């Protein structure tokens, strides 16, 4: 996997960009699957500085997924068994994708001159998993992380790799999850939140949505908009 994957990039309509949102899709999806997000930001109008946001929606490479009988699909890492933390895990693939996210963050800082504390990293499912792990290993502070329908399948590796200096321990994190998620059990999501809180992330919000499956809904997206506003409008 190259350091910079292909991505759908939607530049700020008001230049120069003052903030950036990097949002990472889940298994079998693409950057295009979340490219409606800027339109929702405009429609809801919650984020005041919405015109000066750069958006990046990276595309995962395609790879055979073991749990799907080797079927090739876009993925940030292989999955050996769905809904299991006891099965083998694709640690090298997972960590490689974390490096991709770091390079996308650095691109916003170094190429687009976006202040790191105004960069929000986010993702859905696999994208949420690598976003959280990336935050924990960064050696510089960013604005925040949004993790939707996420999990942590490599807790021991995350514990070993996290930045002990705590540069992001006060970086706000929003994790949302549906109570009826059939693919990523609520208990799996709760374990992820406990892991990161236990590492020292003190501004960590974990919120559940009654009846929601492996998806997002209006209530969750409103909460996400309010979270983003607190980070980039301040």
TrEMBL record:
One of its GO terms (cellular component) is cytoplasm. Keywords: Fatty acid metabolism, Hydrolase, Lipid metabolism, Serine esterase. Coiled coil: none annotated. Residues 10-232 form the Phospholipase/carboxylesterase/thioesterase domain. It comes from the Eukaryota. Its EC number is 3.1.2.22. GO terms for biological process: fatty acid metabolic process. It catalyses: S-hexadecanoyl-L-cysteinyl-[protein] + H2O = L-cysteinyl-[protein] + hexadecanoate + H(+). Pfam families: Abhydrolase_2. Hydrolyzes fatty acids from S-acylated cysteine residues in proteins with a strong preference for palmitoylated G-alpha proteins over other acyl substrates. Mediates the deacylation of G-alpha proteins such as GPA1 in vivo, but has weak or no activity toward palmitoylated Ras proteins. Has weak lysophospholipase activity in vitro; however such activity may not exist in vivo. Belongs to the AB hydrolase superfamily. AB hydrolase 2 family. This is Acyl-protein thioesterase 1. It comes from Suhomyces tanzawaensis NRRL Y-17324.
